[in-house]
Amino acid sequence: MLRSTLLAASRSRLARRLVEGAPLTRSVVDRFIPGATLDDALAVTGALAADGRYVTLDHLGEDTTDIHQATATVDAYLRLLRRLDEAGLTGRAEVSVKLSAVGQFLPDIGEKVALDNARRICEAAATVGTTVTLDMEDHTTTDSTLGILRELRADFPWVGAVLQAYLRRTEGDCRDLAGPGSRVRLCKGAYQEPASVAFAQKSEVDLSYVRCLKVLMAGQGYPMVASHDPRMIAIAAKLAHQAGRAADSYEFQMLYGIRDAEQRRIADEGNRMRVYLPYGDEWYGYFMRRLAERPANVAFFLRSLVTR
Ligand code: FAD
Prior knowledge:
Blueprint: H1 2-9, H2 13-21, H3 26-32, H4 38-50, E1 54-59, H5 67-86, E2 93-97, H6 110-128, E3 132-134, H7 142-155, E4 160-164, H8 170-176, E5 183-187, H9 202-218, E6 222-226, H10 230-242, E7 251-255, H11 260-268, E8 273-279, H12 284-293, H13 295-306
Helix pairs in contact: 1-12, 5-6, 6-7, 8-9, 9-10, 12-13
Flavin-adenine dinucleotide binds near residues 188, 228, 255 and 297.
């Protein structure tokens, strides 16, 4: 109930005005989004890399219906990639892109604009020697996003996809995307979805996650295990071992600000551990999804409002 209210609020303009206008302590948002500027993001990336972790950077923004805004987002990614290269961080850091931020929702021309814009980002990533992963948004975008992924992979076979275990279709998508070199980030899924397309119970989502992990670990691609759930992490490690995978043939991923000690433990044990690091001013949707994932975050947020 709380989860669906927060997820509905994440797409409400009124709720956005209320939350953004609230006397919200920056420290609450900072827990998940450590900086508004590119310099902030690069400083955190450098620190995580020095600590033995990998990073994927997300320039915050989504649901763009303005072509100039979509172009501005592409420019922000091109600046980010240039700066990662100058800082010598491209061996440790890649970028994550939401297609809705680069034009996917523009009426009539959205898919073409998003493909062209994503292509520009991939070209820049190739130039500096790093990779791009396409985030996955709600289920109405899945076919379009996978279609754009296919087109991009013809020229840039290393482009990563995100698949969401809560969708009933995802085990099949995992089979389709488990081929040689295919980078797939498997997460549980963060949006509000109807029962016709998504599992509603946590236990069903977890079982689906494990089925998908089995397909990906037994496949020939590069699985990216994006979860903070200790059970999913343990099962992934066991499946990787059973499949005879080397430590550099898959990786674990978590969001910045969540289970930091566990991130370190996983990295210290010789595994690849990548941190998803968002930055920028457009933090509202991302922040609300993080609140929706864990009721304790809401309590923390409310406490910060009253104890200011
Ligand atoms: P859960 O069962 O939700 O959580 C397990 C445990 O992790 C919890 O008990 C708690 O201890 C901790 N935890 C989880 N979430 C939080 C939180 N917000 N705050 C504090 N503790 C928490 N979703 C998409 O729909 N599309 C994407 O493109 C996408 N990209 C992602 C990329 C990465 C690298 C990661 C890690 C997640 C991504 N997600 C994405 C979000 C994902 O779908 C889940 O909503 C989120 O990861 C919570 O699921 P979980 O697997 O951690 O398991």
